Fold each of these.
Amino acid sequence: MSRVEEIEEAIDRLGPEEFRRIAGWVREREQQRWDQQLDSDTSSGKLDFLFEEAERESKEGLLRDWPPSK
């Protein structure tokens, strides 16, 4: 049995309050990892194409406000 399977089985045995706690913990860690990856990708230049595209479309007048005005 893998570690993941052991963890899954342990989670299945949790009561409702313990499950909510672990679910919140996992969501927080997932968000932290997402933020770290985004920071890393930004610092390394992997996302430069997005900035270049936005600048080009801005100059061409193709950008719209978000959220759209009502």
Amino acid sequence: MRLLLVSGSTRKSSTNNATLATVRELAPAGSTAILYSGLSALPSFNPDDDRDPVPAAIAELREQISHADAMLFSTPEYAGTLPGSFKNLLDWTVGSEVVSGKPVAWINVAAPGRGRGALATLASVLGYIDARILDEACIDLPVARDMVESGIVASLPERDALARWWVTMQGQLEKSE
């Protein structure tokens, strides 16, 4: 399985980025997890620019998505919804239909009871672009900043939960084929 990991955070030391880096580190044999790193470089979405040739950063984003078997998102919540830069990334996928039918999931690392606005918006956008949301692979796993060391989640219970997440994700992909 080739999994594309997409963080909605532009903060280098975010818990969302650390969680996805940990998912990449824990990838089981036969699976590859690629961390998308171009969020900050994406131009603002403009439908007039969404035609051949698209900006190079958009072409790269779409290529990475098209080569992935599935996608995993982790995003902070800003002002009750998705960060603007992350929504911008999603907007660039609408016209290409590159996410259509693609299996997707998310990990919410916010404190208990937080992040629901962002996740509701994410689910709405993913539904609009016809992504295939794997509900059982979407999890809440609070990750506090003090659980992160050297850019990865160091707390053993959370690392174990992320290792188990891989098993769930693989099972969901097999079931959905």
Amino acid sequence: MKRLFLMRHGHAPTAAEAGVASDARRPLSERGLKDAGRMAAEIRRRGGRPALILHSPLLRAALTARAAADALGDGVAAEAFKALDNTLPPDEVFAALRERGAQEEDVLAVGHQPQLGEIASLLTGAPFEIRPAGVVALDLSGPPRAVWALNVDELLD
């Protein structure tokens, strides 16, 4: 894996607002679906070509991954990845991502805060505020470095 894109799930209503019994079952809002597609299109516009999307098993991350896959185009596989469920420390998650994505040039990981920000910080030494549908693009071909970071409200239409 040469490039890793960390994307936070899109906007989601609270469990009470969504009428679901657990946090894991929170869906995306319409805005969340739209923003996920917009940010995936931005990844592609900036030269990213993830063929693999690994996502948290929580519903809002799975729906974000599906919207991102649709925006990225044919041939993009999305799969649930337990390590992204926001329970493991960043070093363990990154090791699991690196192992699973070893055969890919670009991987998109869709998950949650604070885990994604912790991974980005672990690799770069810098803090990142990743808001819903936000992305941090990391170059791993040498010493890890952030290439760009963008939140959906910073997109130029």
